[in-house]
Amino acid sequence: MAIKTKGCKELVAQVIETGLCTLCGACTGSCPYLAFHKGRIALLDNCSRTEESQCYDYCPRTYTDLNVISQEIFGTPYTTSEIGEVKDVVMARATDQIAIKHTQYGGAVTALLSLALAERTIDSAVVTKTLDDKSPSPFLAHTIDDIVQCAGSSYMACPVLGKYNQIHKDSNDRLAIVGTPCQVLSIAKMKAKLPENRINIANVKLVIGLFCTWALSPDKFHEFLKENCDLPKVRKLDIPPPPANRFDVYTSDGMTSFPLEQIRKFTMPACSFCLDMTSEFADLSVGSVEGTEGWNTIIVRTDAGADLLDRANKKGKLEVRKLPKSNLEHLKEAALLKKKRALKQIVEKSGSSDNLLYLGLSPELIETLLA
Amino acid sequence: MANIEIDAPGTSQLFIGNEAIARGALEAGIGFAAAYPGTPSSEILGSLAQVAKKMGIYAEWSINEMVAMEAAAGASYAGIRALAPMKQNGVNVVSDFLSNLVMTGIGKAGLVLVSCDDPSAISSSNEQDTRPVAKWLDIPLVEPGDFQEAKDMTKWLFELAEELGTICMLRSVTRIAHARGNVKLGELPTKKHKARFEQTHDLKNVMPTTLIPVPSPFRHFLLHMKLNKARDKFESSPFNKYAGPEKPELLIITSGSCWLYSQDAIDALKMRDKVGILKLGTLWPLPEKFVIEHLNKSNKVLFVEEIDPFIERAIMELAGNLPSDAVRPAFYGKRSGHINAFGELNPDLVIKAVSSILGIEYQARDVDYSNKVESIVKSNVPERTMTFCAGCPHRATFWSIKNALKLDGRDGFVTGDIGCYSMAIGPAGFFQVRTMHCMGGGAGVANGLGKLGQFGFDQPVIAVVGDSTFYHATIPALINGIYNRSKFILVILDNNATAMTGFQPHPGTGMTAMGEPTEVVSMEGLCRALGAQVKVCDPFDLKASTDTLLKMMADDGGAKVVIMRRSCELVRAKKEKTPYKVRVDANKCIGESCGCDRLCTRIFLCPGLVWDKKTGKSKIDEVVCSGCGVCADVCPQGAIVREAACLISS
Amino acid sequence: MPNKQLMKDPLNLIITGVGGQGNVMISLIIGNAFVRDGYLVTIGETYGASQRGGPVMSHLRISKNTQYSPFIPNGSADIILGMEPVETLRMLGKYGNPNVITIINPRPIYSIDVTVGQAQYPELEKLIQTIKELSAKTWLINATEEAQKMGSHMFANAILIGALIGSGVLPLTRKSIEPVLRETFPKEIETNLAALDKGIKLVKS
């Protein structure tokens, strides 16, 4: 494989057409050649660049040496830790009732972003908004009201980084980005190699990563929802923790459930090659708490993350507790399982443990995970 | 265009071949002319239409050549001399009517078909010699060798047609039709036309004036009689002439524009006293006695004609029937490979053939100069690929089509048709058009593709057609698509003109050939009445156009029509002021860097945009830019700025 | 003093440029002037799809006694009026010879091949020098510039006709051209005549 030539042609051949693309959106919004439409990334024309191509460089599924990324973000090598670099792990929930009403679990993301906006440590946030037709859409939130509107998960992949890329390069706005592990990885790659002709990456003051096992296909799953639910009445989607094995759709009339088996058909095939369950390169990673409704697990990874969480706690925006040991153990187990499964899938796809498709891992780690 | 109606007999005018033909028709006293625009024939009807009112005649742009030919025949049946000019493809279109017309015969008034071929397909989709049609359908055929003959032959042909009672054909080519030369004018008639259809229909009476081709074999026999009569006349026609020595070393037999090339070639080779040129003007039926007389002059004969070996084969057949002791010359031409059987000819190709046959060395110019200039040109002269004009709505339409097909992602494609938009097979239209045949071919091909769903076909199909082409040939295909439930999108490029051929009016423009306002046949009204789902878009609104196409592609329903409506820029510019002043903000332009890779000058390809290698930025060529402002919506950085021209002070 | 006779018979004049420049108009005006003066003129145009931006060449064959073909044979141009420099060089390649006379408007018009970066437009100074080396005599007439000073680049045509007349290579005088100009531009005749005179002046300076 020629290494010199790296452009959108290679991106399409190596990532999009091979089923590795997670629709993170990092390649869209910054040039006229790549665009997201109905559940796929389309190449509208051929860009003639063969090097220094940002679509290729920031894609989380082109070659990524996790050691390099880890050094960049944390100053340490990539370890065998199941849930990545950790300063602290807590459980938390928002204290504001309005926020709680709209959110998925504990409303922590909503509360943290609202605080950051209110105290003006950020000017806007790149988030996902669920539109009236219940499809997810990248959104640039400027007010607390915006943030509240964007609470809740659609479970479908959404190319939010495209929205980030569209922000004018001369903008001085300080940003927060909320994303899935693949999106967080892309941002980390941008921090490792500064982007050109885009907004300064240094403007990104806060990265909140979400826990993610897989994402659903935004066109196929949306079709399914449309055919099986009265979309205008849908209020919230939820996958309750095991052993529930259900996908719940809350409407204004009540709740409908689908067997999780039925929904699994719509998971993006690309997600099976992802090792990261907890957004390992974020400032804060947020997910649910198994067995405890209405709370979030928060992994604190950087000073920026720790400071914001601390302020949120002190100002009474978040109720923060220690995460019970058993929850932490279960979280690590699940995260490790995802790593092992994913690496196995990668090796199966590539045909050799010497070719990890897009991943650069230390040989020890590979050995551990494949054992 | 020149004034073909000048009343100045005996004076010399500079006419293009088409104007000369039109003038010949006027001098013959025609009352009726009908045609469909087709390069290189369009100026014949165009110039007649310009003077029609003044001259008291009727000239029409018909919806297609078939109707034009039939209409002209109608006039002939009513006693009005009529002319039907067309390009080679038009002859294909009228062939069914012709095959019946030659059986029936024409009316009392002469009817002449003028076919203008386009050797090398300079402005055509195909290359075709229409002279074999004369042999195929038994039609007397003439071919003018210069501009004077173009006029004189046309005039004479009406008399011939009336004498024989059958349609006669004149065949021209681009290099006569569009080239200019001296034409001495004749008198213009003063007789008034009176039209009346004599009802002589009587099946018991088999005289040649019946209008029905029955009984056909007998009428076929009568037709052969007519052609024999024509042949006799051709034996003594002044349009067949010989120039050269009594016993030339080489006899060139030629016709049409090739006569001029042969003369140029002989002059250049300085062989006027060694090579004779037999120019034939009356080609079919071949004046056999006249030809045989001249065949005896030399033991080497070279046939110089475009495009097919029409005369060559006829004369070889003739020679094959000579008595066994007759002297047969060696024949050179397309069969021997001395003259191409494809592409147009020119003096240099004739020079090459003659030099080769006679073993002459010929240097056009000093050898050192030749070598020097040829190597310089090879490395210094860039090509000029055709593209849409600055401000052309087709560029915007194909931009939206390209993006919509790519976003849709099912590997959809475009079937194309004939017009300026044919250029979308290349970079001008982003290589979108994948098939191209004849007028109406695009929608026809799409019909078939749209029924292949049962075989697993799922690619979106878009058929593009121009407004004039739509009226000309596409309506039956659209009806077929609706009736047979074929899945495709018909995109009509409505720039309100038959642009490629010179902006002739059509049923959508509300104007006739003679400049009179008339009913507009509403394109969307017609399509809706047929039962199609119709959307009208402004191609300059890239987002709306792309969204409309995407929606239609996602829709599994029946026939869909999108009308991309915006005036041709060349037409608009004549009537209106420039809408925008467009410029590139060099501070915002990021040129070749990641994020743009100079999209405007590398892919969008409007000739108004120029890439400055030195500064690494794009800029606007103010002379070429039409001020449409579409590029401002294409630039990913917003570096192209458009400001309403009326708001800018001087 | 302009020659009253053709330099040779036939006189082969090429007018070359890019579609939309007014090539055809110039050939028509000159052709008509010759016909009025009693010559046999054949004009062949190659404008193919008649597209703005594509190369256009007009071949004029002027003779006292024969109607020549609309094609000038290779290597046989006597005069080339080049409205665009690269097109002039293209013509020299096919029809030039050591005796050819060139009159050029040295303003480049870039094809999309050049803007795409697929082709290189030659450096202008060098291009002009090359044209000079390949001609017996060359005149540079900045017709577009001068025309823009007069109000529109459209007047370049009349300026170039003036240059042809003033150079003496054709047996045509201002008197031969004026009536044809009047017929062609009835509305803007004064400016066109001024442009004609400007061309005559420019070529003599």
Fold and architecture overview:
The complex is a heterotrimer of chains A (371), B (650) and C (205). With 371 residues, chain A is an alpha/beta fold. Helix content of chain A is 34%, strand content 20%. In chain A, β1 and β2 form a beta hairpin. The longest helix of chain A is centred in the C-terminal third of the chain and has 26 residues. The radius of gyration of chain A is 20 Å and the shape is globular. Chain B is an alpha/beta fold and 650 residues long. Helices cover 37% and strands 17% of the residues of chain B. In chain B, α1 packs parallel to α6, α3 runs parallel beside α4 and α14 packs across α18. The radius of gyration of chain B is 28 Å and the shape is globular. Chain B starts with 11 loop residues before the first strand and ends in a 6-residue tail after the last strand. The model of chain C has no long low-confidence stretch (mean pLDDT 90). Chain C has one domain: Pyruvate-ferredoxin oxidoreductase, PFOR, domain III (Pyruvate-ferredoxin Oxidoreductase, domain 3), CATH 3.40.920.10. Chain C is globular. Helices cover 42% and strands 18% of the residues of chain C. The two termini of chain C are 15 Å apart. Chains in contact: A-B, B-C. At the B-C interface, β1, β8, α9, α12 and α13 of B face α1, β2, α2 and α3 of C. β8 of chain B pairs antiparallel with β2 of chain C.
